[in-house]
Amino acid sequence: MKSYLEPEYVVDRDDDRCTRCKACVDQCTYEAHYYNPEDGRVYSRDEKCVNCHRCVVFCPTQAITIRRNSSAYAANYNWTQEAIRDVKKQAETGGVVITGMGCDKPHYTYWDRLLLNASQVTNPSIDPLREPMELRTFLGAKPDRLELDVEDEDVVLKTELPPQVCVETPILFSAVSYGATSFNVHEALARAAAEYGTLFNTGEGGLDWRLYKHGDHIIVQVASGRFGVHPDYLNIGAAIEIKIGQGAKPGIGGHLPGEKVGPEISRTRMIPVGTDAFSPAPQHDIYSIEDLRQLIYALKEATDYTKPVSVKIAAVHNSAAIASGMVRAGADIIALDGVRGGTGAAPKVCRDNVGIPIELALASVDQRLRDEGIRNKVSIIAGGGIRSSADAVKAIALGADAVYIATAALVAMGCTVCQRCYTGKCPWGIATTDPEISKRLDPDVAAKRLMNLLQAWSWEIKEMMGGMGINAIESLRGNRLHLRGVGLTDTELRVLGVKMAGE
Amino acid sequence: MEEDRSLSPDRGGPTTHGEDTASKAYAACLQERVTVEGVVARLDAGGIYYRDLNTLLRALNNDGVKRIEVLNVYGQRYIGTGLEGNVEIEIHGTPGNDLGAFMRGPSLIVRGNAQDGCGNTMDEGRIVIHGHAGDIVGYSMRGGSIFIRDDVGYRVGIHMKEYQEKRPVIVVGGTAQDFLGEYMAGGVLVVLGLTLGDDVRHDARFVGTGMHGGKMYIRGEVEHLARDVDVVDLDEADRQVLLSLVGEFCDCFNLNIDEIVTQNFSKIIPISHRPYGNLYAL
Predict the structure, then answer these.
(1) What ipTM is given for this predicted complex?
(2) Predicted TM-score (pTM) of this structure
């Protein structure tokens, strides 16, 4: 069948600048560039280009520009280029349209409609460069009250605290599975988390034994496929996370394509080389809140009640009620993943249409738990659409204890959000397990870039906190008086629990 | 949701040390339940909260006890969960859900029925059930073996895995319910149908749905196979595996192997390692 699909991107090569060094040919894993020895020139196959910008960055003479194909179908508000392309693609394959990364549609980004406060006259702002500023955060259930005693003139805590895990900045690396990404990605994330004093989440593909030494800075995830879940794995982590759902594909399972299952992934996941790795849609031992409690306590039993257990859900319509149940089921941490959360592969129709924005879910969950008097029994980590330190600060003001970032972390390492993670050919060496392509990501350099990102965002958070006159991140948590909305309806303001700017 | 706080001084919420005389009395009562002679221990579990029962079992295991007899078990969960080593625990009564979950090494013998989640994500070891077992037996099991004398519930052997020599085994003496071997990625699942009488016909539907690895040997007729699997004849290697596993099963329950292995078996294997390979428009 002849394909009616046209190239999405066009590669422009400035032939005067091109030195025929063939860097673009070497760098492109999609074979969009090729060298013709007969005339000694480099050409492009536009239809193969995914606009990842690997060649643009690595061209020593800036000879390459990638642009969107300007040969567009007739302008139509409903029948967009994307809508027409997807229908044609499905007519040619009969398949589900797959994509990578988070929802790319323009709707529902409430961060951009929320503005932060600053001190003027009536209370002093704080200069974080010269005054102490506390970002340290403890994740885990907090007691209803504290009992103290005085022994030999020292104040002693009598209350036995549930297990806590300490992070030096309220920014955690969200779940990125081994298999969706390479070992080098995991190593860079784990090392950066360990060096900065935060946490890296393994995702659902297990953890390579070489990274067990960073266990104090790792959240080990237990998902429906139970890949790589065994006593050593559970015991090595600082916390355990039960993955119920993911913002990019709430309610559906995952298929890691067989192309990505090489020998190392096979060993870690315990499935044969080349087979698809299936994560069933539900965990078949959890059909209710009571069952969730059962798995939470199975994990606590297996680790002797030494570490917090997190439960991650996708933000959906009744998240608040579910979250209440999760707390009562014994979760120490609730991770909420919004509709814009990333993925290595998801049906596009689910990614872009299922779930709700993190801002609304977070606000309603925090409010519900406060109303029920159980907010202290759990820490909340918000993820799925955190693009900057400002988003992180707004999330904390809306009620989060900390935020999860994964897309931002991958972008720091080189990702350009081209959304082709599912091909396994990521030219940046990130969303691939191909041994050759994976080498492109140097874990030393990637870890450094991640450290820089954590440092930069942490400074920015301190600047914003200082401006508000707040010197400890816990004073900002759920402090919605420091938020104001713009361009929002009364209902939106009510759900977010914030006032209109000017009020 | 269960509300059995009365028995546990320290579940979920905050607690304070000392003072609590009720919890002290309870702790003393726990110690009285255990008798240890050499490397053999006996534990009366009647009325003990699961968390305390399992704490006792872990402590005995850490002390080097090799065999523990647990009496009067009334539904306590997580017995053997996360336990490592080679201790043998004989359970009299009805253990609760998640028996031997995440377990690595120990041997559990149940003189009674097991509930749901028996051998959940079990890594190594052996579970022998002298009775029935519930749903999702051996969910995501990674190694070791489970022998069940009678029938089992739904989704047994779901997502079992294997890697090289590490190959989990489940042998069910009776029959199973729907979605047997769902998403199975490795290991061996044997269903003998001994509780079905002469006409060995399994009612389970969607057997092997999503199966992409491992194998099942089923004695008698399976009426409703998933489209992801194929039925093939056993070869000599299969017969050797079956003989060995059924032999072990018969040893567990004192049965005569000759009456079982002569009967008709089918071998069920996945058609593809990638049953959903054509689902997507990439």
Answers:
(1) 0.91
(2) 0.94
